[in-house]
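For reproducibility, we list the full input for the fe (ii) ion complex.
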Amino acid sequence: MAVQVKVFFHQDTGTLSYLVVDSQAQHAVIIDSVLDFDIGSGEVKAEFANRQLAYIADNNLKLVWILDTHAHADHLSAANYLRTKTGAKTVIGQGITEVRSRFSKTFNRATSGPGEQPDFDCLLAEGQQLVFGSAALSGISTPGHTSDSLSYLIEDNVFVGDTLFMPDAGTARCDFPGGDADTLWDSIARLHELPDDYKIWVCHDYQPDGRELRYQTTVKESRESNIYVGSHRQKTEYVALRKKRDATLGAPKLLYPSLQVNLWGASLPECESNGVRYIKIPLTDKVTS
Ligand SMILES: [Fe+2]
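The corresponding predicted structure, in tokenized form, follows.
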């Protein structure tokens, strides 16, 4: 039986989050949910995630898995919040271990141990399957944007995270630590080998030139017409283009807050002795003139 996909758009971060429902058993999974966060005030809210929870309650669904496609650097994942509210299990790709290990040094924070927040419930490997109701999902390793990126295949739907954008928007950047344009090209080539009519669901859409929101394409459309990685492009051409473009991009506004949450099971940092949680911002070595 075909799964149903319900789309939620988080306007502030341009993020698409998907609720995928096996309508036979009324079991569901959520992919790439978002916590609302205001960096000026430090206010963290769950309005967006609560809309998803309301939909789940209104439709008598049981949430089984809460999936992230990678350690996002532009928004806080709501995975742990959703887990707390529903008892569903959190899932991310196995590559998270390596990414977290790298950033533990940046944040001077242990990867695990006393005082650390609980981690993800499941670190999914390439090809590994998870079941919800009568449906199943499996991971396709798609590094390049980040080294931990994992796409999720559910029947004829593939949820690609930031591995691909809509055909008129190209791909995500590859200049984060562990990112690599060469590797992303190879990952996209694997996705483009899926059957032509498989549906690709992207995690972000920034509505280039003010066009209406788009979030779903097909393997055929993406392979033939993606402006960066379509069939008119060569790998070397793409890598040069991606590097040139990445050199012009600044750090995402929520880079450090996102990583300090998303790499540690999507949990907020522990309270300090005064009962307050903090986000750290590592500063550059010197003051540049
Ligand atoms: Fe991302």
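The chain has one domain: 4-262. The radius of gyration is 19 Å. Both points were considered when choosing residues for closer inspection.
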